[in-house]
Design a protein that fits this description.
Oligomer: single chain
CATH topology of the largest domain: D-amino Acid Aminotransferase, Chain A, domain 1
Shape: globular
CATH architecture of the largest domain: 2-Layer Sandwich
Distance between the termini: 50 Å
Structural class: alpha+beta
CATH superfamily of the largest domain: ATP-grasp fold, B domain
Bound molecules: adenosine monophosphate, glycine
Strand content: 25-35%
Helix content: 25-40%
Number of domains: 4
Length: about 425
């Protein structure tokens, strides 16, 4: 089988590493990939959201299976265009990608199908949105409807902050058309959990739970990012909680998509808030998480290709997935300036020493080769992943590897997984 991986982050590097190990695959190519992916497979230049160009590459390369990493090409209809060209793809069609591409669509879908989520209203008019916020008179969350690079959510601490967010999104259009419509929802509290399931349009198979660290600084301070690190499994997700997430979130979502006539063959990634025994879905993504994929692939103890290809064919093998007992941690090394304007072109060294730490694998994200030197080329540059006998051991290995890497001006969090290490006794359910 010939496989094309679309994307160029640490998520795609982790997927490429898993795919090339499969005896079912004769060649893997990536578009556009990055300097680390280029060490393992052939990379072809191009923009992931240039749908006709990606389809041309897939045809020219006689690709049997396209694995789509990021959301933008899914929302742009890449999977629909590949299907029209007779090429199988892992990823939902445009109609399914709306779950991530439109928060209003997602919230209405959840309400219609009885999936637990915070109460909300949708507004197309800024004055009406402000009146609603002032009438309720309590802290609310304001979300731009469309894709806003993870920045379109304001968890407002008072009414004025919520109104300022409405003004910025709907009148000043700081996120362009993505902010023409907003969702205003009740604030919920608790532990955030990332939960992935692979779906084939009918059946699904859950992966292990993970926890992301979205803020740039230690202690969950500073601005939101795409994700500064992750670990799996989170202590709060006991077997009972895992089963409950499958029963109350994943199963009704897969059923709802099928009932709505959407052949969802890809990853359903629920962003959850868990507070004691209260479970709420904050959002759905329609692709693998980044950095979650680093820890999920580290722990997945089976060939991923039958899962990806089975889902794409609508014939997913649904046996429970073997997962290694060892926990995994991924620490992101980001460029100077991230998540604002980033500096690129800085030299990267120490990767061999880092990769030599037992249990560690160093995934590339924003890296490029310039005059034979490895340099930074994006906001998140590397993702250092480690398996360990327990979370402390995994963290010790990951940080030993991180400390071996030199990148001028780089930033990383020192507390990835610390919340999981502290919470050894989950709060008992009250029922
Ligand atoms: P989202 O893109 O919808 O996941 O929102 C981004 C981040 O905003 C989430 O990771 C949460 O930390 C926070 N958030 C979103 N919705 C809520 C909510 N209803 N209550 C509290 N925090 C939220
Ligand atoms: N790490 C969160 C995401 O991939 O959206």
């Amino acid at each position: 089988m010939r496989v094309l991986v679309v994307g160029g982050g640490a998520r795609e590097h982790a997927l490429v590493r898993a795919i090339v190990r499969s005896p079912l695959v004769s060649e893997t190519v990536a578009l556009p990939g990055n300097a680390g992916i280029a060490r393992e497979v052939r990379c072809i230049g191009g923009r992931v959201d240039d749908v006709p160009a990606v389809v041309d590459v897939a045809l020219r390369e006689r690709i049997d299976l396209v694995v789509v990493g990021p959301e933008a090409p899914l929302v742009a209809g890449l999977v629909d265009a590949l299907a029209a060209a007779g090429i199988r793809a892992f990823g939902p069609p445009r109609a399914g990608a709306e779950l991530e591409g439109s928060k209003a669509f997602c919230k209405r879908f959840m309400k219609r199908h009885g999936i637990p989520t915070a109460p909300f209203e949708v507004f197309d008019d800024a004055d009406a949105a402000e009146r609603h916020v002032r009438a309720l008179g309590r802290p609310l969350v304001v979300k731009a409807d469309g894709l806003a690079a993870g920045k379109g959510v304001v968890v407002a601490s008072d009414v004025d902050e919520a109104c300022a967010a409405i003004d910025a999104m709907m009148r000043a259009r700081v996120f362009g058309d993505a902010g023409a419509r907003v969702v205003i929802e009740e604030r919920v509290h608790g532990q955030e959990i990332s939960f992935h399931a692979i779906c084939d349009g009918e059946r699904f198979v859950p992966l292990a739970a993970a926890q992301d660290h979205k803020r740039i600084f230690d202690g969950d301070r500073g601005p939101n990012t795409g994700g500064m690190g992750a670990y799996s499994p989170p202590t709060v997700v006991t077997d009972a909680v895992h089963a409950r997430i499958v029963r109350e979130v994943i199963a009704p979502t897969a059923r709802g998509l099928a009932a709505d006539g959407i052949p969802f063959r890809g990853v359903l990634f629920a962003g959850l808030m868990l507070d004691g025994d209260t479970l709420n879905v904050l959002e759905f993504n329609v692709r693998f998480g980044d950095p979650e994929t680093a820890v999920l692939m580290a722990r997945l103890d089976t060939d991923i290709v039958p899962l990806l290809d089975g889902a794409a064919r609508g014939a997913l093998p649904t046996a429970a997935l073997p997962v290694v007992a060892s926990p995994a941690i991924a620490v992101v090394i980001a460029a100077a300036g991230y998540p604002g304007a980033v500096r690129t072109g800085d030299p990267i060294s120490g990767l061999e020493e880092a990769a030599a730490v037992p249990g560690v694998s160093v995934l590339h994200a924003g890296t490029a080769k310039k005059d034979e030197v490895l340099v930074s080329s994006g906001g998140r540059v590397l993702c250092v992943t480690a398996l360990g006998s327990d979370l402390d051991d995994a963290a010790e290995r990951a940080y030993r590897a991180v400390d071996a890497i030199a990148l001028p001006g780089s930033q990383h969090r020192r507390d990835i997984g610390a919340s999981g290490r502290r919470r050894q006794t989950p709060r008992p359910a009250s029922s």
